[in-house]
Amino acid sequence: MEELEALWEEVRELSLGTSTHIERLDLPPSPVEFLRNFVTPNKPCIICNAMEHWPALSLWPSDDYLCQALGSTEVSVHLTPNGRADSLVPHPTDPSSLCFASAHVQRMPFPDAFHLISDPDKNENLVAYAQQQNDCFRTEYGALASDCEAHIDWATEALGYLPEAVNLWIGNNLSETAFHKDHYENLYAVVNGEKHFLLLPPTDVHRLYICPYPAAQYSYCQDTGNFSLNLEDPVRYVPWCSINPYLPQGRDKTEMDEFPLFFNGPKPFECTVKAGEILYL
């Protein structure tokens, strides 16, 4: 175990340094600098002053602009009772175990979706999050395409290909993404508000305790305002990270004992990405 812990530290120090904070660049890097200093060593960074020419930065903070630009366009909204879509929750028939719960996805005109997201206090036990994937910006939100660059040139040149998918996510302070791992390069641009991240390097994947969990789906009843959670039939298992880095009150000791590689190992890297900044990971 001591040898393994020493290897963690050596790998982290070699590629990421000893700090638990993410490096910030005051200006966009050249393609060569980006490839050499960040892409090749799998090193995240925050790039400032890379989006100043995007019309979105000045236009999107206006609720009226977004609602007028998209009009009655229907978008996909993910509804959950707690803001945690695609995450582990108590099993619906065996609360002592967990299942992987996906959000109830509802299509609605953008103005309705936006007001549902931006005023969560009006809807008790309902959190809305526009977090559709699969290239939703270029499909559902196509009317906003001219407000952003089609791609980020220095990143495209460094990576050698255009974006496979471009997504737009709109949430509130209750929107939360569970610990997970991605299989591709990400450029996460914040246009309005801010997003807080906890990050682990690829060499720490064993510390996530990825296990198969039965898949379940939330269903939301508009008449009663209640959610139900049902297992998929036939049963399907989803490999997912068992770690909740924010320990619920009363479960601290149990979870720390159950997942010692995570809670006794190096801390995740933390960063907050603000409007006008891009996180590479």
From TrEMBL:
Matching SMART domains: JmjC
Residue ranges annotated for the JmjC domain, each copy included: 128-281
Protein family membership: Belongs to the JARID1 histone demethylase family.
Entry protein name: JmjC domain-containing protein
Organism annotation: Carnegiea gigantea
